[in-house]
Amino acid sequence: MSEFAVPSPTDGLQAASDVAATVDVECVFADQGVGDRVASWLADRDGFAVERSADPEAVLERLEATDCVVTDEDRVVDLVEEMSDRAESAPVVFYTDDADASLPDEVLDDEWVDVVRGIDEASLPVLSHRVRALAEHRRTADLAARALAAADAATDGIAVLGPGGTIAFANEQFARQFGYDRDDLPGHPWRALFAAETADRIEADALSAVADGWQWLGTCEGRQADGDAVTLRTRVTGGGGDAVVLAVVQQSSETPG
Question: Is residue 113 part of a domain?
């Protein structure tokens, strides 16, 4: 099995992701005094760009350029419901002084809604942290969705390895190259797709290279679903964070030994 390691193309992406991007925040409050205080606090913090509005409809028209909305009890339910019917949406942080304030279950269960209770000086740092965390989580989710859409359209076979040595995602081409139904691959051990010796070498050489910031390329002996051997030119790279991407770049003309 020929193999070599080269610098990973994800290094630059990872470095860029380490730089905190500006969070564009819309503050829309029924209580103008609280809204002014929140907007002023966030605007004085590094990494926030703040728009202040008393009109929820105006906020809804700017969602494409908004990373997070901060609002109060009189606005949050309507905003979340309105955004659910739109192509564009943004995370929402509900800021309230009412410790007993309740929201409908469908709002509380929304992944992109958070609640900060207690309108005072002590809660403002908590608010800014929640806003940034929610906005960055949304950006990461959007980026992942775009990456998976691109992987689906790729001509190479692509799989993302999850924790515990299993496959988290595989595109149609990857499943076809190994003779599997795509829906059967998530949760499937990646080692089962290769001859035992090949899997050992991928684990020892390729994964360690990726951990050191390199990508690995080699000719591998694969095992199809029916047990037949197949020779595949395979690239292993980092996908950012702990993710590992396995790409079959071509089916080799070499015969498995």
Answer: yes
